[in-house]
C-alpha cells in the first residue's frame, strides 16, 4: 500500500486516464446532446482547436507571438478548394488533397518563416499582422485564385477510401480523429529535442544560443510545423463547410485563435482544445444573453488574464500541485507511523 | 493629374497624422509600461462616439464641448489603466497584458454598440459650407480640398508637436522617460512611477480620442474605426519601436503609401501598405529610425 502511494508513475497514469475518460465521454455524449446547428458549431470548434494547437507550438513552446495562423489556414483551405472544386479545369480526389494541403502550406510557411523570423520579438509579431492583412486582401480581392468576395463554393464531400461522412455527427468523429492525431503529434514534439530547444528559446534566447541551439532554424521549423497544422485545418474547413471565403481569414479571427489558446493554457495541449471549445461554443451556450456575449467575452478575457494568466490548465496544475503536496504530507505521515510501529 | 496628386497627398497626410496619433500613444505606452495596446483603435472609436454623443445628442456648444470631452477622455484613460494594466502589473506572463487589451477591445466595441446601436453615426464636419450645408471645400491654387482633411492635418500636427515637446523636452517628460526605462531606479530617485504611468494613460487616451473626434465626420462614428490601429501598428514598426519621432514619420509614410496606392491598386490598398512594411522590415529590421529603448514587449 505504501509503495503504491509512493510510486510516482502510477499517479501520472491516473491523470492521463482521467483525461482519456473525459475525452471519451465528450466524444460519446456531445453528438447526442447537440442537434444540427449546434453540432455544426461544435465541428467548426474542433477545426479551430487545430489552429489553437498551432499557436500553442509557436507561443506556448517557443514564446513567439504570431497571428499568422489564419493566413496559413487560408493557404490550406484555398489549396484544397481550388484543387477539388474543379474551378481550375480539373478536380482531384479529396482525401489525397487533404493530405497534400498540410505539405503545401508547410512549404509556404517555410518560405514566410525564413523571411519573417529574421525579425525578433515584437517585430516578428507585427510582421505576422502584416502577413495576415496582405493575405486577407488577396483572399478577398484576387478572383482567379481565391474567388474574390464570393469565395469558392462547390467543394466536394470528403471521401476517405470510399467512406463519406454524410452528416454533422459523422463529421464530428472524422474531425475528432484528426484533432487527436495532431494533439498527439504536438504532445510528442514537446518531448523531443525540438520542443526542448523551443522552451529554451522561450525562457532565454541568449542562453539557448550559448547552449548551441540554432535559434533561427529552430523557430523556422516550429513556424513550418504550425503552418502545416493550420493548412490541415483550412483544408478540413473547406471540405466540411464545402465553401470558403475571405471572412474566415480576417485579423479578428486570428485574434480569436490566440485567445482560445490563452484561455485554455497556451503551453498545454488539452488546455488549448478546451479553450477552443469554450470560445467557440460560448455564443451558443449563452443564447439567453445574446446581445451581451461579446461584452461578457471581453470582460471575461481581462478577468482571466488577471486571475489566471496561464489559463485553465494553469489553475488545474496548481490545484494538482497543492493536492500532491497534501498527499505527500499524508504519505510521509503514514510512512512515519509505519516506521514507528515497526520499531 | 496635379490636381489628383495634391488631393491624394492631402488625404494621405491627413490619414497619416491620424495614424501618427494612434502610433504615438502606442509608443508612449510601450515606453511607460512596456505593453502593446491592442485596444488603441477601440479607444479612438470610443473617443469618436463620445464626441458624437456630446455634440449630436446633448448639442453642447463648442466652448462647453471641449472641457467636457477632455475630462471624459481622461476618465476613460484612467478606467482603461485601472482595468487592463493595474491588476496585471505583476503578471508573470508578459503576454497576459497584451491579451487583456485585446479583451478590452472586444468589450469596448460591444459597450459602444449597446449604448449607441450598431448603425454608424454621422457627425457634421467642423467647417460647413453655409450655402449647401455639407462639407466645405477649400480651393487652393485650383485644387479642391476638403476642409476637414486640412483641419485634421493642422490640429493633429499641433497635438503631435505638443506631445513631442512634453515628452522629449520638458522635465515632466524626462521623469516619465526615466520611469519607463528603469522603474526601480526611478522610484529610488523619488519619481512617483504610479503617477507618471497614470498621466501617460490619460494623455494617450486624450490624444487618441481627439483623433477619433477628427475622423468621425469622414468615416462616421462606427466600430470599424478600430481597424485604423492596424495601420498605426505598421507605422510604429516602420519608424522603429519606442521612438516617438520614428512612429510619426512611419505613420505619415504609411498614410501616403496608402493614399497613393489608390491610384493604381485601389482594392489592394491594404496589401500594398503591409507589403511595404514587410519589405522594410526585411531590409532594415530595426525600423527606419533607431529605437531608443530595447525591445521590451
Please outline what is shown here.
Chain A has 343 residues and is an all-alpha fold. Chain A is built from 15 helices and 2 strands.
Radius of gyration of chain B: 19 Å
Morphology of chain A: globular
Helical fraction of chain A equals over 70%
Question: What separation lies between the terminal Cα atoms of chain B?
Answer: 44 Å
Fill in the keyword field for this structure.
heterodimer, A: mainly alpha, B: 297 residues, mainly alpha, two-stranded antiparallel sheet, globular
Give the arrangement of secondary structure elements.
The complex is a heterodimer of chains A (343) and B (297).
Chain A: H1 2-6, H2 8-33, H3 36-61, H4 69-85, H5 94-116, H6 121-141, H7 143-146, E1 152-153, H8 168-191, H9 193-203, H10 205-210, H11 215-241, E2 243-244, H12 251-264, H13 269-285, H14 293-307, H15 311-342
Antiparallel strand pairs in A: 1-2
Helix pairs in contact in A: 3-8, 3-9, 3-11, 3-12, 3-13, 4-5, 4-6, 4-11, 5-11, 8-9, 9-11, 12-13, 12-15
Chain B: H1 2-33, H2 40-57, H3 62-85, H4 95-116, E1 137-140, E2 143-146, H5 147-168, H6 171-181, H7 183-188, H8 193-219, H9 228-239, H10 244-264, H11 269-283
Antiparallel strand pairs in B: 1-2
Amino acid at each position: 500500500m505504501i509503495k503504491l502511494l509512493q510510486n510516482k508513475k502510477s499517479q501520472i497514469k491516473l491523470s492521463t486516464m482521467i483525461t482519456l475518460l473525459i475525452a471519451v465521454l465528450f466524444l460519446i455524449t456531445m453528438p447526442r446532446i447537440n442537434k444540427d446547428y449546434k453540432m455544426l458549431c461544435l465541428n467548426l470548434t474542433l477545426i479551430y482547436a487545430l489552429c489553437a494547437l498551432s499557436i500553442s507550438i509557436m507561443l506556448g513552446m517557443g514564446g513567439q507571438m504570431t497571428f499568422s495562423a489564419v493566413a496559413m489556414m487560408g493557404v490550406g483551405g484555398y489549396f484544397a478548394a481550388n484543387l477539388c472544386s474543379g474551378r481550375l479545369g480539373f478536380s482531384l480526389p479529396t482525401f489525397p488533397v487533404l493530405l497534400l494541403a498540410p505539405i503545401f502550406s508547410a512549404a509556404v510557411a517555410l518560405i514566410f518563416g525564413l523571411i519573417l523570423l529574421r525579425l525578433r520579438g515584437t517585430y516578428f509579431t507585427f510582421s505576422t499582422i502584416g502577413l495576415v492583412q496582405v493575405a486577407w486582401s488577396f483572399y478577398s480581392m484576387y478572383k482567379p485564385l481565391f474567388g474574390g468576395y464570393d469565395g469558392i463554393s462547390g467543394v466536394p464531400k470528403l471521401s476517405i477510401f470510399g467512406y463519406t461522412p454524410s452528416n454533422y455527427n459523422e463529421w464530428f468523429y472524422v474531425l475528432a480523429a484528426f484533432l487527436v492525431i495532431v494533439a498527439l503529434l504536438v504532445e510528442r514534439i514537446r518531448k523531443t529535442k525540438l520542443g526542448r530547444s523551443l522552451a529554451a528559446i522561450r525562457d532565454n534566447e541568449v542562453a539557448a544560443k550559448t547552449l548551441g541551439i540554432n535559434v533561427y532554424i529552430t523557430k523556422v521549423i516550429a513556424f513550418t510545423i504550425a503552418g502545416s497544422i493550420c493548412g490541415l485545418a483550412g483544408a478540413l474547413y473547406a471540405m466540411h463547410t464545402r465553401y470558403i471565403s475571405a471572412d474566415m481569414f480576417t485579423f479578428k479571427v486570428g485574434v480569436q485563435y490566440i485567445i482560445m489558446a490563452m484561455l485554455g493554457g497556451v503551453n498545454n495541449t488539452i488546455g488549448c482544445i478546451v479553450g477552443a471549445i469554450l470560445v467557440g461554443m460560448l455564443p451558443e451556450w449563452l443564447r439567453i444573453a445574446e446581445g451581451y456575449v461579446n461584452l461578457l467575452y471581453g470582460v471575461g478575457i481581462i478577468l482571466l488574464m488577471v486571475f489566471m494568466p496561464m489559463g485553465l490548465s494553469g489553475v488545474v496544475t496548481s490545484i494538482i500541485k497543492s493536492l500532491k503536496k497534501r498527499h505527500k504530507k499524508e504519505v510521509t505521515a503514514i510512512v512515519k507511523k509505519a516506521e514507528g510501529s515497526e520499531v | 493629374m496635379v490636381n489628383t496628386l495634391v488631393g491624394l497627398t492631402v488625404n494621405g497626410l491627413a490619414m497619416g497624422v491620424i495614424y501618427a496619433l494612434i502610433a504615438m500613444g502606442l509608443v508612449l505606452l510601450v515606453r511607460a509600461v512596456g505593453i502593446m495596446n491592442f485596444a488603441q483603435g477601440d479607444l479612438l472609436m470610443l473617443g469618436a462616439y463620445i464626441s458624437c454623443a456630446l455634440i449630436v445628442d446633448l448639442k453642447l456648444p463648442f466652448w462647453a464641448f471641449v472641457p467636457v470631452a477632455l475630462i471624459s477622455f481622461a476618465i476613460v484613460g484612467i478606467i482603461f489603466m485601472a482595468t487592463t494594466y493595474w491588476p496585471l502589473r505583476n503578471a508573470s506572463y508578459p503576454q497576459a497584458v497584451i491579451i487583456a487589451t485585446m479583451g478590452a477591445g472586444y468589450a469596448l466595441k460591444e459597450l459602444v454598440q449597446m449604448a449607441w446601436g450598431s448603425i454608424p453615426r454621422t457627425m457634421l464636419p467642423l467647417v460647413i459650407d453655409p450655402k449647401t450645408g455639407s462639407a466645405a471645400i477649400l480651393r487652393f491654387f485650383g485644387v479642391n480640398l476638403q476642409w476637414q482633411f486640412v483641419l485634421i492635418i493642422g490640429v493633429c500636427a499641433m497635438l503631435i508637436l505638443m506631445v513631442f515637446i512634453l515628452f522629449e523636452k520638458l522635465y515632466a517628460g524626462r521623469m516619465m522617460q526615466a520611469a519607463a526605462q528603469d522603474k526601480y531606479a526611478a522610484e529610488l530617485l523619488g519619481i512617483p512611477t504610479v503617477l507618471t504611468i497614470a498621466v501617460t494613460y490619460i494623455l494617450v487616451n486624450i490624444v487618441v480620442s481627439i483623433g477619433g473626434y477628427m475622423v468621425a465626420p469622414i468615416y462616421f462614428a462606427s466600430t470599424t474605426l478600430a481597424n485604423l490601429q492596424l495601420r498605426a501598428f505598421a507605422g510604429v514598426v516602420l519608424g522603429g519601436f519606442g521612438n516617438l519621432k520614428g512612429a510619426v514619420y512611419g505613420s505619415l509614410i504609411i498614410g501616403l503609401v496608402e493614399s497613393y496606392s489608390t491610384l493604381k491598386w485601389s482594392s489592394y490598398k491594404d496589401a500594398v501598405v503591409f507589403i511595404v512594411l514587410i519589405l522594410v522590415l526585411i531590409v532594415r529590421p530595426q525600423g527606419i529610425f533607431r529605437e531608443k529603448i530595447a525591445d521590451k514587449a
